[in-house]
Design a protein that fits this description.
alpha+beta; 5-stranded antiparallel beta sheet; 20 helices; Hypothetical protein af1432; 483 residues; binds fe (ii) ion; 10 strands; globular
Length: 483
């Protein structure tokens, strides 16, 4: 029994392109609902109808629907599902769900029924524990589920698999590791926030576990993960913002020479910095226009609310005190502006200064409902280094430049030879020469999308000639950053 792997059939390609992303979104929503509600609950039933609708639509053209994971990608009936930014959260959380259960893929056969889907989700969620994962195919059979089959990784055709991976020279070990670490951290951050909403306080041990792999990456001088913080317009940005601030803070801490333990504490502080936003109503947080005076009062309280939530934790530790302080001080500025209002002699902790800088850089390039377009990371950096520099500790500002480079990930530049390249991740050895993906070669030709050309990093013979404005770009930079 082998599941179809990548092929070139045009009809299949159209199908996977049009419905692949929707299938992942529906499956992930159903998985999420099943975690919170019983399958008999209306919320699950509603999601299930949406999901089965997509499966039936696919079955109109296909004998079966096979969703498999090869390397870092999902394939629907052999065609790769594009990692569009709108589905990134779903994409990676499902990938982690598959991985935890040692599942290579799922096959949905025609005639699939609703009771079967209900039973499938009960069994699938029960196999969350790695010791149960091995028994998953057996459990599916025992539950008389005939129209949903598990594809074991060993069932995927190994030769096809090898060929497919060989076609992807860009998936170096480091980048692949960084993506895993990053998306795992996003789902971890989400769990921490949702849990804290119920209990009124964050789980610090869980936060440490989320941060540890990021510290490991940065300590190994692997900076691809810093490049991933440039992804902004995806479905899980609220949680990714916490991870981005953790990643940037850790990396800045490393540039400043802080020891490992301090980096881990800094990461936890970054991850939890906006916890207090939980106390602000969602419509105020998402308000597209300017805030009213009352709403501003609420907004300005989130640093204090966050610190109070952390203070509710039992026991006391350095990391807890650091995180509390960073929560309280992350909107204070070096020039004594910002909030909350404190006595003049109050000194903002170094860690808080780092978190404040990381927060500002990440937030100023995020999409906002009331802006025609978000600032590019390059424009953000220009503002921070220009008019806004008085708000920040100069040493910390320097650490930001060391961390993101002069042309941060997501920036498209034209080089001296005339090539147009997208910055993917920073190069701490030379802030002017990031790791890049070539969009247009010097001779005017473009590499194909499936066989990308990378500069690891930009060669010595090249330098940046001009930074392109987002409106000059013909590319969806975020899709390429995520790939
Ligand atoms: Fe904040
Ligand atoms: Fe923030």
């Amino acid at each position: 029994m082998s599941a179809p792997l990548p092929n070139d059939d045009t009809r299949d390609r159209n199908l996977a392109e049009s419905l692949g992303g929707t299938l992942l979104l529906r499956l992930s929503a159903l998985m999420r609902t099943a975690r919170t509600y019983d399958v008999s609950n209306q919320a699950f039933q509603r999601q299930m109808l949406e999901f089965i609708g997509v499966i039936r639509q696919l079955h109109e053209d296909e004998d079966e629907v096979a969703l498999v994971v090869v390397g870092d990608y999902f394939y629907l009936n052999g065609v790769r599902i594009k990692t569009e930014s709108s589905i990134l959260g779903a994409y990676h959380s499902l990938m982690a769900d598959f991985e935890r259960r040692q599942v290579g893929g799922l096959r949905f056969l025609p005639g699939i029924t609703e009771p079967e889907i209900e039973r499938f989700f009960q069994v699938f969620l029960a196999a969350d524990d790695p010791s149960m994962a091995e028994r998953l195919p057996e459990m599916i059979a025992e539950a008389s589920i005939q129209s949903i089959l598990i594809v074991a990784p060993s069932d995927l055709d190994v030769e096809d698999l090898a060929r497919e991976l060989a076609d992807q020279p860009q998936q170096t070990g480091e980048r692949s590791r960084a993506k895993k670490t990053f998306w795992r951290a996003v789902s971890g951050a989400k769990k921490i926030v949702l849990r804290a909403r119920q209990t009124g306080r964050p789980d610090l041990r869980h936060a440490k576990r989320v941060v540890q792999p990021i510290v490991d990456n940065i300590m190994k001088h692997e900076y691809s993960i810093v490049g991933l913080t440039a992804l902004k317009d995806h479905d899980e940005y609220t949680y990714a913002h916490c991870v981005n601030v953790a990643v940037l803070s850790i990396s800045m801490g490393q540039a400043l020479g802080l020891p490992r333990q301090a980096l881990a504490d800094l990461g936890v502080a970054g991850l939890l910095h906006d916890l207090g936003k939980m106390s602000i109503p969602g419509d105020v947080l998402r308000k597209p226009g300017a805030l009213s005076a009352d709403e501003w009062v609420m907004m300005r309280r989130h640093p204090l609310e966050g610190a109070m939530m952390i203070a509710r934790m039992p026991g006391i530790s350095t990391v807890m005190l650091d995180a509390m302080r960073a929560c309280l001080e992350h909107h204070m500025n070096y020039n004594r502006t910002g909030y909350p209002d404190v006595e003049l002699e109050w000194g903002q902790a170094t860690m808080s200064r780092i978190v404040a800088m990381a927060d500002c850089f990440d937030a100023m390039t995020a999409h906002r409902a009331y802006c025609a377009r978000p600032r590019s990371p390059f424009e953000g950096l220009q503002i921070l280094l220009g008019p806004n520099r008085v708000n920040f500790d100069p040493a910390v500002l320097w650490a930001l430049v060391r961390t993101v480079g002069l042309y941060p990930a997501g920036t498209v530049v034209q080089t001296a030879s005339g090539a147009v390249v997208l910055a993917l991740s920073p190069n701490p050895r030379d802030v002017t020469r990031p790791f890049c993906r070539v969009l247009v070669r010097a001779d005017g030709t473009s590499p194909s999308e499936d066989t990308p050309e990378l500069w690891e990093p930009m060669p010595e013979a090249e330098h940046v000639h001009r930074v392109l404005k987002p409106e000059e770009m013909q590319v969806q930079a975020s899709g390429l950053l995520a790939a």
